Amino acid sequence: MFQAIKNWAQQRSVAKELGKLPAIQIARIAIQDSWSSNKAITQDFSRELIDGQATLMMQKVIEIASSDTPWLANRGFLAECVIEYAQFGVLVLEPPPAEDTTGFRGMPGITGELKQHYMMLAAKDEGLREALRELPHGNDPDEIWNFIVFRNRQLWAWGNVFQSVRFAYNDHAPKGEEDWYRPFVAAMFAWQEDTYRKALGLPSALEGECEGVHLRALWYSTFMNRVTNGDANPLATWREDLAEYEKAE
């Protein structure tokens, strides 16, 4: 019994110390703002799911904060969130005059034209098909669409939480300079849209010669490497790489 009390006291002490970390403090606010108290994002979700996802988010933040290189561990997980977010995000965008709350439509390679093809992509794209396997009725259009919309909301929240955690580790652009997070998301959207267009047999939305345009999309995907490799300024180094590629075209 005394050992159990001692273990409980140690756990409380560890939890108290963790709670003092800037990453935990920032995460608490970000989870509330982006998820738990964000009605626009969590509408249609059960309280059980909302609370469960919030707990998982904080557990991941604690895991990252406890790692040897927390800023780099956070980048790696953030990149995973963004890649999956792009998988669904480009499908829920719509062309004008529909509202675009993301601000990404119209950026290179991002059109908002793929929503009408979501059922075909559910059959043709391996990554999307894999994500949909958990659905009980995998061929039902409404069920598939709801899954896409709901997963998009969840991943937006996860990405926003962990991009906020970056600030605990000063992993952001200096004041007055463009930060790398939104350009990174836009690059992943462009790459994902090009991947989907290729699966559908549609022309790329990126500029360039037909035979080289998918290589350009591949260069967009290399932004992820710049993020996960720990570049001090992923945006600057990625843009330098892209400029060199464009010169060689």
Task: Sum up the structure in keywords.
disordered N terminus, single chain, 249 residues, 12 helices, mainly alpha
Report on the structure:
By secondary structure, the protein is mainly alpha-helical. It is about 70% helix and about 0% strand. It contains twelve helices and no strands. Helix 2 (about 20-35) packs antiparallel against helix 8.
Report the uncertain regions.
1-15
> Into which percentage range does the β-strand content fall?
under 5%
Give the class from helix and strand content and strand pairing: mainly alpha
SSE order in H/E notation? HHHHHHHHHHHH
Tertiary shape: globular
For the sheet with most strands, the description reads: none
N→C terminal distance: 72 Å
Query: Can you count the helices?
Result: 12
What is the tally of beta strands? 0
Mean pLDDT over the full residue set: 89
Rounded to an integer in angstroms, the radius of gyration calculated over CA atoms is 20 Å
Percent helix: 55-70%
Note the topology.
Blueprint: H1 2-19, H2 22-36, H3 39-42, H4 47-65, H5 70-92, H6 118-124, H7 126-131, H8 141-165, H9 181-200, H10 210-221, H11 223-228, H12 234-248
Helix pairs in contact: 2-4, 2-8, 5-8, 5-9, 9-10
